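stuck on this one:
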Amino acid sequence: MIVGIEGKVVKKEVTFVHIKTSSGLTYKVFVSLSCLGKISSDAIALHVTQIIREDQHSLYGFIDENEKKVFDTLIKLNGIGPSTALAVCSTLSPDDFAGALLSQNIQAFQKVPGIGPKSAKRILVELSDFSLQLHNEESASGSLLEASMALESLGFKKEMIKKVLSTCQGNDTQTLIKEALRKLS
């Protein structure tokens, strides 16, 4: 299984790049729009998800490891294929994805081409217990996730936590927990 690729970008299109490795092989790697925007030089290293089907072998590349986690999570869902998962990654950053899950924001998922109200609801329902552990813990949604887990460990119900945290204004975990506790009391 291929989990990473490093080489020189020899062709750049809207949905994919061709990467020539040091061994001389050139691979077609599908990328999100956000990943494509981050490719500034010819030399590149990507985290890769390889999908093998009867009729094709595909590589999906990501500069951001959190974006790869979002993609890998989405393709495990029933009815969500790689192209739809890549569309989600192109539309929502990993922080936005985690925030939309936490706040149960159907509209955020409906902004993604190819996802309607039913698919958006299904994503939220199937990923309701899922928490994306982001490497960048300083981000606002990382703080939201930490606050949510802390409040859950105190015995509050997930539904109430999500509703209350969506109204909180704090940026760091500690402030969010204090504000949420005041509102939950």
